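Researcher: Before we compare anything, I want clean individual predictions. No alignment, no superposition, just each chain on its own. First chain goes here; please echo the sequence and then give the structure tokens.
Model: Echoing the first chain and its structure:
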Amino acid sequence: MYIIKFGGSVITNKTKENCFKQEVVDDLVKAIKKANKETIIIHGAGSFGHIIADKYNLNKGHKSSDQLLGFSLTHGMVQKLNSLVLDSLHNNGIPAVSIPPHSSLILNNHNPLKFDYIIFKEYLDMGFTPVTFGDVVLDKKLGFSICSGDLLMLLLAENLEPEKTIFVIDEDGFFTSNPKEDKNAELIESATKDQLNGYVASKDRHADVTGGMQGKIETIKKIAELGIDTILLNGNKPDRLFKVLNGEKTKSTIITGGQK
């Protein structure tokens, strides 16, 4: 089984609110269908969630009554994005079912307090493809906060032990520096958890209330500690996702998991 995360920067245009990249998602879904592997899919909120969540400071917890509307608006928008992703999966013959985070997860000061991973396993065992996503959720200490897709990736990896986790991003993988700003940046084809220590990702210019690439690095290091390999690949090149799922070599970064 593979856990795949579609990054928000891949499936949406983060500079334009609620801008869905239909063709990109359709091509990625076709790659998954062609590979015919058991998968769980997670997707980021992209421009459907981060902009509103940032406006209402939702990740800082419940501070004022107007945030309740902000919470509801954010949840509504990421549900719309989730429906668009589901439509693509259904249109390509994949029996996908949505599992919203607020129905299976409660946080405590941003950290997991309760997580019902069994529901994911039960759907997998039935032959479904579970789909979940970054969203706003209840938080015992803060009232509410944000659950990132990266946190869901880690929690599902901890409990369901996938063969690999795959981050589908808008670059070829990790680079020695930001390839959008440095033409001499070199792709890091493989690394261990320890080699990621000290690696500092450049900040994204667009709103991201969940830590961006730096948060992703911390998540991947924790997944590596579970003994699970993580692959980062370019979602704008859907054939690379197919090749990884099919066990073929392709342009990407692999972070190798250490011993459990």
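Researcher: Okay. Second chain, same rules.
Model: Second chain and its structure:
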Amino acid sequence: MNPNKPDDVHLHIDADGWCAQAQQLRSPNCDVRADGVAIDLLVIHNISLPPGQYGGPYIAQLFTNTLDCDAHPYFDQLRALRVSSHFVIRRDGSLQQFVSTLQRAWHAGVSQFGERQRCNDFSIGIELEGCDTEPFADAQYTRLCQLSRALQQAHPLLAVTGHEHIAPGRKTDPGACFDWLGYRTLWAADVPSSAHNALPPFVTVAQKTQP
């Protein structure tokens, strides 16, 4: 990854939790967050459907419950699955949003961050189109950092972590090919050095989950 200054694109999360610059494809796979719960954790995932194949409509269809599970043999195991993420960043950097950040998207599953379980309750999920064994595209890191800064302005983010770190042994994404150092460097590129301490910490150590 080349941590160059990202393109001058300003993303904004509005008062309803939507990003106007994203393609909005609303998912039914979400519900209301509990009153008074701070939205303070950002969780990074990866996804590709079928695994290792990019560019098709299947991720959006999965998150909107419109996937034809007969279209590929792998999809048969997804028939009963009801999942969503708040955002998806495609290989070309294009951004899709499925759930308002004010709502609880069904992205983390059984999970724990520190002493807190049920990470869906207090987190925002971002899916990168990709897999554990292949580097992500520079355009994805650029968009991810733009989105991260927008989310930090809209919500009191205290930490950034991976799905593998809140569900160890069950999940492996975003995987060893995700460049955590490059992501943080690029995120900080447009932040004054005096404000670097305000960036949320990146927690990349597996969190203990309960049986």
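Researcher: What stands out in the second chain?
Model: Confidence is low (pLDDT under 50) at residues 1-6. Additionally, The CA atoms of residues 142 and 183 lie 8 Å apart.
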